[in-house]
Amino acid sequence: MEENKNTITIMGEDNKEITCEVLFTFDSEQTHKSYIAYTDNTTDESGSVKVYASIYDPTGADKSLKPITTEEEWTIIENILASVQEKIDAEDSVV
Q1: Neighbouring C-alpha atoms within 13 Å toward the C-beta of 23
Q2: pLDDT tens-place string over residues 4-54
């Protein structure tokens, strides 16, 4: 994983580099891990932008992204994504 301000470069399934936009990072007190949420700005069948999340090392010592494997972690991430979306929706309704 290469990181540049608001983007990261990951390797796709076909070993092609994909530049992704970093949406946010956060540390979980529950799991004691750091997470990164990002998108390649593609959409799914319903037209929603695809968002991905992984475990990462904020020190940069290990540049690889690790998969999220537990339901507890996915629940934490989904709750944060929902909270971020609610904030965005609220800001959009003000404009």
Answers
A1: 20
A2: 569 999 988 888 999 999 999 999 999 999 999 999 999 999 998 999 999
Domains held by the chain: number: 1
Residue 67, number of CB atoms within 10 A of its CB? 8
pTM of the model: 0.82
Evaluate whether 68 touches 24 at the Cβ level (below 8 Å): no
Q: List Cα–Cα distances, 51 to 4, 44, 62, 71, in angstroms.
A: 18, 10, 22, 17
Question: Which residues on adjacent β-strands are paired with residue 2?
Answer: 9
Give the CA diameter of the chain: 43
The range of the structural domain enclosing residue 36 comes to 2-94
